[in-house]
Fold this protein.
Amino acid sequence: MPDTAFQRFWKRLQQIGLNAYEARSYLVLIGHSRFKALELAARAHVPRQKIYEVLDSLVEKGFAQVVQEKTKLFSAVEPALAIPAYLSRKRKALEEELSDQSRSAAMLVEDLGRAYLEGQGERGTLDFLRIINEPALAAAQYRRMLAEVSSEYLEFARAPYAVDPVDENLVRQAHARGARCRLLFEAASARDHSRLLADLEQAGVEVRVAESLPMKLALFDCRQGLIALLDPVITRPTWTSVLFDHAGLGEAMRGLFEERWQRAAPAARGAA
């Protein structure tokens, strides 16, 4: 086998899971019918003290076989048999490991969940505020609070959305539970959603349109909420969300919402 091909196959065997000594030994075995262990060590440039460990591993992984027991000789298993069988066993082992980890994780979630709930009983000085930089986490918190809102839900709806309130069934469900839902959209977003806004209004959600909004805001029962602010670094604009549970801050945000709501236009006119 040319040296360039040998090096290429050596690296590819390592990519599927053999170590460097195993890959080199297997490639040498492929080129000959059988080898004694120490002969293979010299040809494959494997330390003599390591060769038996390497051969045992190759036999266990299905890449080599013992062809004479009295004086042990080793030969390669055909690649078309060795490689698929090895990957199949590896896949099965990984699936079993993942299954075990999933079971352990489920028990861990339950145990740590209890500890977490106990820990939440003692509030620190800033426990009413959390900064969230991950949009998926902000979206999960938004949906949780929206699912729990009972009397009033207010939102400054401004793109880009972690969760688009126009497509979010939880908004309609909150209204169906008796919560007053008011959504204030920026004009650009409203034009893109004009038909869907009409559907929201038909469902009983109150919608108005403002030319611009200072931030993203979702306020639940005048106490809990999310504020999303555009980071001042302009290179690549990103949003940072602040999750709060604070009656005073909720009241202040409600006052800001009311002031903008009164100045806003009805959805049909603002989205035109």
Q: What stands out?
A: The chain has a mean pLDDT of 83. The first helix runs from residue 3 to 15. Residues 129-270 form a domain with the Endonuclease; Chain A fold (CATH 3.30.870.10). The chain has two domains: 3-82, 129-270.
